[in-house]
Amino acid sequence: MKYYMSILALILLTSVNTANAQNEKTKTITFITTAICEDCKERIEEKLNYTKGVIFAELNLENKMLTVKYKTALITEQQIKEVLASIGYSSDTVVRDKDAYLALPKCCRGESSCEPEK
Amino acid sequence: MKRVFLILFLFNITCVLWSQEHHEHGAENEIKGKIVATENGKTEPIPGAKIKWKSDSHMAISGLDGSFEIHVENLPDTLFIKAVGYQLLAFEVKEARTDLVFNLEAGEMLGGVEVIGINLGKTMDLLVPFNVEKIGQDELRKAACCNLSESFETNASVDVNMTDAISGAKKIQMLGLDGIYTQIQFENIPMVRGLSTSYGLNSTPGTWIESIQITKGTGSVVNGYESMAGLINLEFKQPENGEAFYLNFYGNKFGRAEFNIHGAKKVNDGWNTMSFAHYSGYFLETDVNDDGFRDFPLGNVGALLHRWSFAGKNYETKFGVRANFSDQVGGQLGFDPGNDAGNLYQGIFKTYHAEVFSKQGFFLKNRPAGSLGLINQLEYHNMYSQFGNNVYSGLERKYYFNSIYSDIIGNTNHNFKTGLSFMIDDYNQSFNDSVFTKTEIVPGAFFEYTLNEMDKFILVAGVRADYHNMYGELFSPRMHAKWNINPKNALRISVGRGYRIPNPFADNVSYMASSRQWIVSPNFRPEDAISSGITFTQKFMIRDEVSTISLDYFYTHFNNQLIIDMDESPNQLYIYSTSSRGYSHSFQAEISVKPIKGLELRAAYKYYDVRSTYHGALHKMAFVPAFRSLFNAGYTTRNKKWSFDVTGNWVGKKRLPSTASNPLQYQRGIESERYWMVNSQITYRYKKFNFYIGGENLLNVIQPNAIISSDDPFGAFFDATQMWAPITGYNIYIGLHFGIKQKSKE
User: Fold this and answer.
1) What is the ipTM of this complex?
2) CA of B165: how far to CAs of B291, B515, B728, in Å?
3) Cβ neighbours of B91 in A, within 8 Å
4) Residue B496 above 90 pLDDT?
5) pLDDT digits (tens, 9 = 90+) for B459-469
6) What is the pTM assigned to this prediction?
7) Four-point Cα dihedral B135, B136, B137, B139, nearest 10
8) Residue B325 and residue B278 in contact, taking contact as beta carbons nearer than 8 Å
9) Taking CB atoms and an 8 Å cutoff, what residues of chain B touch A63?
């Protein structure tokens, strides 16, 4: 009986702990970016969706707002905006990295049309 | 007058300034703010920006310091801001404030009011006069297999069926009519016609395709006289924006393996090239339904495409070569062509196809809206098909030319296209002991006029005349009209005449999988039909996402039709031309909704009534169900890493040709059973990789005793062509895509 009770306690303990782990806080933020076109959307989403701590990152091309849902224990809002800056895009509070910005294709720098040819 | 302002603004971004209007109203009905833009780190005011509410026609203009005032009747409402050199911006404003700042560079509104993007929906396709549905990359990836015949799994307008139980070939149906009445092209160049009709869909790899455009009813006269039930145009991936490197592997439960590789490269300013290679085959002998016959022919299929494009100031061209081969062995288990004692039913399928194509576009210096396009294609096709003792071989050599001169008359409301075409098509066929040769020479000319009233009403009227060396004049006038009753819907009407020169053997190779005696009439008229249709499409918004309802009805009337008569006798096949009554009524209703982000639900319901006259009486066409429906649910997670897709195809009862005169064990019913065909796929994306696993025919529907007389394949009653349901049961497959995009131009 004692043996059985300790197994049960162990199971309960681990399940409570995992439940706690899943109750980890998540936050969703939305902010403006200097993205311009479909190419920018793909770059930003691909970079952020594979950044540790980010649950999803979605750019709205109509108003250039980026929505990010993330785990607060793994990453902060500031860090997310810094990742964005590192690939060449500014947000409302963090300015883009100049070299990364210059490495972007012309249409993502606003220097030519983003419309696909033909 | 105010209504006109509203319409003009909404349809024309660079609207003309009529007057400034300044309202003095109470503070609670006034929005005040400033228009600025940040450039090179400095924020400057923008004078002269036009500000307007969606629901109102009054317009305000920002002053020298960027400030503006605009009256508002009701909030929330959408505020449009347009300044020269910046994109049109739209903001939803929920409360009246006097301290708003709109930054055009960042597209941002500062001032504490929540910004919600307005998704105006993809209204482009509401503008096109032809009833065109487009299948893009996302759709093609939902059901990842494998060649063109399998790319319509989630589309309601094109039905796919197996042709016979021996060759593994598939064919399509549109409007309830056989796939031969649908014209298929790649980038407006003919394909899957002539001898390629039977296996052409199977030899076009799905990974080469960028998008597919499906038009129901007759197409434009520019493309020729051959579309009657529909027109399918493929766009292959282009060298300018194709992947720099792409790889795909696929394998399934039946021992089918597919391998695709392609890559595009920019050679220098203006020149781009792309090469594609495909290899596939079935490498395991399977017989799931235990009838002694291989479920799929063993052997291999290969295909290559190599293309170039050049884009200059006044000239552009695309050209390339395409080739494919297939060498497959089917028939009874154990059959080996190198060791053929003659007692096992043979299935041998060989195809060799090569073609060269080019498209050229010239832009005329003195006529800015004028352009001339030239299309050339040279094709060689050699095929050999053996079904038991039926041996068919064919050789086709074809040259095709089309020219299109396009220009405006006076202004862009009036466009026209005109041109000349020419085709010479030489066939050399043999079926058992008979030889059939013909050379078709068809010059043609066309003229098409397009009226465009502000994109709201478009009328396309075309006339076409071809002179066929064997059948004389073929006139195919066509008309398409589209009217946007309001910006969210479209009503389309089309009427047109189409022809098809029948190839009784090449079009019907799959019927050779039987012991039926072929009785083919020596004289044919071209198949001739008038197809008319009406389509209504309505878009509506559910929580910022666009949903669509579409209804269509098509009526196709045959003036002359080639009848494939399996009803006269189960042991004979009669093929003859008739001008007696033949028609197809097709009705389709489709709804697509996106109730929550990432989820798309689609349902379509189809009704067909297709009849032809067989020896004196009007009969329902065999193998065409009266009712069909399609259900599809697709969900993608917000981080785009996972996608789940389920498709259900419900197929109603089909009339079956009578087998009443056969011995009892070789008789079948006069009507098939209803069944559900369920497919599903799960896709996982990781950076540049895309893994997928899926299943087809998950309810394991198997047509019972599909092959008639499978125990005596050389007997008089053998028939492997009476297919009305899947015959191989469920399928499980896995695969992966890997792709690296080209670096964009610097």
Assistant:
1) 0.75
2) 11, 14, 9
3) 63
4) yes
5) 999 999 999 99
6) 0.81
7) -40
8) no
9) 89-91, 107, 115-118
Measured CA to CA in angstroms, residue A71 lies from A14, A27, A52, A80 at distances of: 21, 6, 9, 11
Is B667 touching A (CB cutoff 8 A)?
no
Mean of pLDDT values over B452-464: 91
Q: 3-state class of B465 per DSSP?
A: strand
Reported as a single tens digit per residue, the pLDDT across B55-70 is 666 677 787 778 888 8
Using a CB–CB cutoff of 8 Å, tell me whether A10 touches chain B: no
Q: Which of B124, B114, B122, B121 is nearest to B544 (CA)?
A: B121
Which residue, among B593, B661, B668, B669, has the nearest Cα to B631 in the 3D structure?
A: B593
Dihedral angle, C-alpha A45, A46, A47, A51, nearest 10 °: 90
* Residue linked to tokens 């549905």: B133
* Radius of gyration of chain B, Cα coordinates, nearest whole angstrom: 29
Angstrom distance (rounded) from CA B62 to CA B44: 13
- Strand, coil or helix: what is B35? strand
Q: At what angle do helices A38-49 and A77-86 cross, to 10 degrees?
A: 130
Which residue type occupies B156? A
User: A63 and B638 in contact by Cβ < 8 A?
Assistant: no
In Å, what is the CA distance from B698 to each residue of B152, B679, B680, B726, B729?
18, 6, 8, 11, 8
Asked if pLDDT for residue B98 goes beyond 90, the answer is no
What pLDDT does residue A12 have?
Answer: 62
Average pLDDT over every residue of B629-653:
94
- Output the six-digit token pair for B560: 């002359």
- Restricting to B residues 683-712, those with a Cβ less than 8 Å away from any Cβ of A are 686-687
Tally A–B CB contacts below 8 A.
62
Mean pLDDT to the nearest integer, B268-279: 95
Strand partners, B500: B527
Contact call for B241 and A50, based on CB within 8 A: no
Tokens of B477: 């006038």
Q: Pick the residue from chain B with its C-alpha nearest to A54.
A: B639
**How large is the average pLDDT for residues B614-626?**
90
Contacting residues for B410 by C-beta, under 8 A, at least 6 apart: none
Pull the structure tokens for residue B432.
């058992």
* Residues B401 and B422: beta-carbon distance below 8 Å: yes
d(CA A57, CA A14) in angstroms, rounded, equals: 31
A75 CB near a chain B CB, below 8 Å? no
In the predicted model, is pLDDT for residue B386 greater than 60? Answer: yes
A98 in reach of chain B (CB within 8 A): no
DSSP assignment of B564-609, as one string? Answer: EE-SS-TTEEEEEEE-S-EEEEEEEEEEEE--STTEEEEEEEEEEE
The SS3 call for residue A19 is helix
CB contact under 8 A, A106 and B744: yes
pLDDT band at B441 (very low <50, low <70, confident <90, very high): very high
Residue B192 has a pLDDT of 93
The DSSP call for residue B671 is B
Burial zone of B98 (CB within 10 Å; 0-12 exposed, 13-18 middle, 19+ buried)? exposed
Shortest CA gap B39–chain A (Å): 11
- How many C-beta neighbours within 10 Å does residue B191 have? 25
Give pLDDT, residue B41: 63
Show which of residues 291-330 on chain B sit within 8 Å of chain A, judged by CB atoms: 311
